[in-house]
Amino acid sequence: MKFHTKIIGSLAVATLVGAGSAALAEVTAKDANAVLKAMQDFGLVATMDVDSEGDPKISSRVSDTKFNVYFYGCEDNKNCKSILIKAGYDLNNGISALKINEWNREKRFVKAYIDDEGDPFIEMDINLDFEGVGSQNFADDLDWWRLLVEDFEDFIDW
To answer: What's the pTM?
Structure first.
């Protein structure tokens, strides 16, 4: 009898944990509008558009910096798997590859590179495949993005 009670108790806990996990996984790239809403819930002004391939694209800003959210791994311009957040900076004299390498060596989560004019860009990939991520985790990713944009702008003397 004790064994039977333990199994039922364990199943009940597993069911609650599983239900809780599913309830938290609210942001998925399969639904671009869910990503847009999560960004707006975070406090960002964000608008939906499409990129040159017809995939969803969200435009937003942190402070005075404009950035875009691109959707990847899409099937027929929907049911996407991941997003890439990207911002670029037009510098008068560009920036060196050595300086960008210094950033990439020291920082996590966001990578930097330079274009053919020497202007820096930063990007942050977020995997939102399968069941996605919880809204709190996504909000934390957006907060990391905000902080790293500010750090990067200090780094490049923006």
So the answer is: 0.83
